Amino acid sequence: MLLKQTQPYSFQAAAHHLPVFEQPGALGPTLKFLSFNIQVGIRTQAMHHYVTRSWQHVLPHSKRQKTLDNIAQTIQGYDFVALQEVDGGSFRSNYTNQVHYLAQAARFPYWYQQLNRNLGMLAQHSNGLLSRHTPTRIEDHRLPGLLPGRGAITASFGPDPHKLLLIILHLSLGKRTRFRQLEYIRDLIGDHHSVVLMGDLNCHQSHLLEHTAFSDCNLQNLGTNLLTYPSWRPTHAFDHILVSDNLQIIKTQVLDLSISDHRPISLEIKTP
Fold first, then answer.
1. Which residues contact 70 (CB under 8 A, 6 or more apart)?
2. How far is residue 264's CA from residue 34's CA, in Å, rounded to a whole number?
3. pLDDT tens sequence across 56-67
4. Which CB contacts under 8 angstroms, 24+ apart, belong to 52-60?
5. Structure confidence by residue, pLDDT tens digits, 153-180
6. Domains along the chain with CATH numbers
7. What is the pLDDT of residue 3?
8. Could you tell me which of 149, 150, 151, 119 has the C-alpha nearest to residue 138?
């Protein structure tokens, strides 16, 4: 696994644990976050597209590049971007590592790809992190489940005792498996004071904060009107950015954008 800069330079690391960086960059007075399930660049804009455009999950498409460019324009104004359902460079994406491409196109100095389901040249199912700030530590976690393929990224930013822990994840569809995965994430949060958790969690916020291991995590309830799925007529709040109750929220919103089957969700906070 590599934590990479968009310039031709990379930090080498073994297995799933990446190195500790000795001189973290200073964080600004506010931080902007965005989470986006991009569905590997497929423009699903109606229910029937799940059928008529399903071939794009296995075959390349000439318009996928334009979709990635649209996504790059959307994410340019953010400090941290969590990506779900990105391809790490296979036949269907014309062997383009979509995390790397978006980092370059949107001028993010740091990017990280977590490969969760490796189908060789057919598909490289991944999560991704884009950052404008140098992490002090980043780790790769495989989430529990009967079928492999779900993961979480944890990244730390800023010096102690004001360190910010960022968690990026994509949870399973099954309720029981999702509950086990949330227990795993709860252990990762531990006693960290400042936490931002982003991703496609496949369930509503009220369920997360009241009926899972997150019920005692001191995460803020941001309301029930942040609907992200399906993108063309949102009725479900499946995508979330959850933050510790000690972090001051400035603004949160769902972007009016229909270039995936999910809409992106964004959040701005004061730096801890």
1. 259
2. 7
3. 999 999 999 999
4. 56/92, 57/92, 57/123, 58/91, 58/92, 58/122, 58/123, 59/91, 59/92, 60/91, 60/92, 60/93, 60/94
5. 999 998 877 789 999 999 999 989 999 9
6. 2-270 (3.60.10.10)
7. 59
8. 151
